[in-house]
Amino acid sequence: xxxxxxxxxxxxxxxxxxxxxxxxxxxxxxxxxxxxxxxxxxxxxxxxxxxxxxxxxxxxxxxxxxxxxxxxxxxxxxxxxxxxxxxxxxxxxxxxxxxxxxxxxxxxxxxxxxxxxxxxxxxxxxxxxxxxxxxxxxxxxxxxxxxxxxxxxxxxxxxxxxxxxxxxxxxxxxxxxxxxxxxxxxxxxxxxxxxx
Length: 196
Description:
This protein has eight helices and four strands, in the order H-H-E-H-E-H-E-H-H-E-H-H. By secondary structure, the protein is an alpha+beta fold. It has a four-stranded mixed sheet with strand order 3-2-1-4, sandwiched between helices. Strand 2 (68-74), helix 4 (80-93) and strand 3 (98-103) form a beta-alpha-beta unit. Helix 7 crosses helix 8 (158-167). Mean pLDDT is 75; it is low at 146-156 and 163-192.
């Protein structure tokens, strides 16, 4: 069964709704992407390559119409472009929406230091395939870096407080623009950020 047929089957199953549907679709996409990456690295050394889910997909909140947001991490492979093509083209051929990037861990950290969307996406990263050390290593380094920044810059950069909420286990969801409101304070997980 193709991934498109699997998605159609899940969409037709009226017993699956809400979180259960997201869990089922996320699980199917996880399995499929792991298979695609295994095929993409076939015949070469898979060391130093990892596929990581980010954003809503990283949180395992993938709905049937969601973008599949992934990051292909590598440790400076000269053949990474060809490997990425072998991974991305089957996804595009299946007509699924793909949000993707190819980076070294160092590049990902540098971008996360200056870009809130990248930082929050990486804070919720989830390893999918091949090198666990590369995928989980990046996530831990992002958490440590942004925790240190959040502690030191809480009053200067309000968005850093929102990042620190994710690090502290309070991964609330909502409009990040509201997190930039003056006077933003730590909220309990069930409370939305104050309207700004």
